[in-house]
């Protein structure tokens, strides 16, 4: 695909061909809008213009990303030997867009694409594995959220702080979600101990992130809402087992955060003068059915497990959105 930095002039054309192949009509048209009508395309063109000057490490990372998204047989959990030859589709055959009512074919009958052989393993083939706290593994997302949200706050839940989300370019498609009282100090700590450079995702709407009340409780609720997508891995930098990674898209992760932020700023917990505990206010109990309903997942991997097709899927709107 891109063996040297001089090949970046073809990158936009390759992306457009990829969009034509994998997207349906409406999404394809939206993605291929002219830069004037599409801020994302403007940003992409600006980024591509700077690619010839990137470091060798970033060039290698970009090539790994392109390998991953252009080869459907590559999976994050599939560790490849170093001498494995990756086949990268460079000119896929154009397919007709399949309607949502058309059953998905188990096998592809399209012609074989032209391929290029690259003797380099994907750095995305890492040791991520599913992870869930045992206490909630057998509960649905709704049941787990309702169980925690109605429990009186612990002393650690009473403090304010920040929810952070960061990503590592080496682990494309994974989001780390945690809490802290100092965003910059926490990021520096992760970078130092893990010997990696991480970047925060933008979760603020006004350019500056606000403190979150009862941040420990909100972190736990976010983790539970995304529990079906939670992953763990042994860090090669610090040697620890990190269990707060999630295989979700950035957009969905931010939506989940925003839902819980909007709920908690309404001060749903109050100090009970009789018990001395922080509990859900009586006038907020009616919000639990809605807020414990997970944010609808769009264009993400399906939740593991079987679903009874005879019953309609409940997709209530997230609370107060």
UniProtKB/TrEMBL annotation:
Disordered as annotated region, ranges: 87-117, 295-321
Annotated SMART domains: T5orf172 (SM00974)
Pfam families: T5orf172
Segments passing through the bilayer: none
Name of this protein: Bacteriophage T5 Orf172 DNA-binding domain-containing protein
Biased composition (Low complexity): 99-117
Record-linked InterPro entries: Meiosis_regulatory (IPR053006), Phage_T5_Orf172_DNA-bd (IPR018306)
Organism: Neocucurbitaria cava
Domain (Bacteriophage T5 Orf172 DNA-binding) ranges: 169-260
């Amino acid at each position: 695909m891109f063996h040297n930095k001089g090949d970046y002039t073809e990158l936009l054309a390759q992306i457009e061909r990829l969009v034509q192949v994998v997207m349906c009509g409406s999404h394809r048209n939206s993605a291929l809008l002219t830069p004037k009508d599409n801020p994302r395309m403007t940003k992409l063109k600006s980024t591509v213009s700077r690619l010839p000057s990137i470091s060798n490490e970033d060039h290698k990372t970009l090539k790994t990303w392109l390998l991953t998204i252009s080869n459907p047989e590559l999976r994050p959990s599939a560790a490849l030997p170093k001498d494995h030859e990756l086949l990268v589709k460079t000119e896929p055959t154009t397919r007709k867009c399949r309607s949502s009512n058309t059953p998905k074919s188990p096998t592809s009958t399209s012609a074989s694409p032209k391929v290029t052989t690259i003797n380099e393993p994907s750095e995305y083939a890492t040791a991520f594995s599913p992870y869930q706290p045992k206490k909630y593994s057998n509960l649905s997302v709704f049941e787990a959220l309702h169980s925690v949200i109605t429990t009186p706050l612990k002393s650690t839940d009473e403090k304010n702080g920040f929810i952070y989300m960061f990503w590592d370019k080496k682990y494309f498609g994974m989001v780390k979600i945690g809490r802290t009282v100092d965003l910059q100090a926490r990021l520096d700590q992760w970078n130092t101990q893990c010997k990696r450079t991480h970047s925060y995702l933008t979760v603020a709407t006004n350019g500056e992130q606000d403190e979150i009340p009862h941040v420990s409780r909100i972190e736990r609720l976010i983790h539970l809402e995304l529990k079906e997508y939670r992953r763990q891995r042994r860090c090669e930098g610090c040697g620890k087992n990190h269990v707060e990674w999630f295989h979700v898209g950035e957009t969905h992760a931010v939506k989940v955060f925003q839902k819980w932020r909007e709920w908690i700023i309404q001060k749903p917990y109050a100090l009970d003068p009789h018990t001395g505990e922080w509990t859900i206010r009586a006038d907020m109990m009616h919000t639990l059915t809605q807020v414990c309903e997970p944010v609808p997942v769009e264009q993400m991997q399906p939740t593991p497990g079987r679903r009874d097709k005879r019953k309609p899927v409940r997709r209530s709107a997230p609370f107060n959105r």
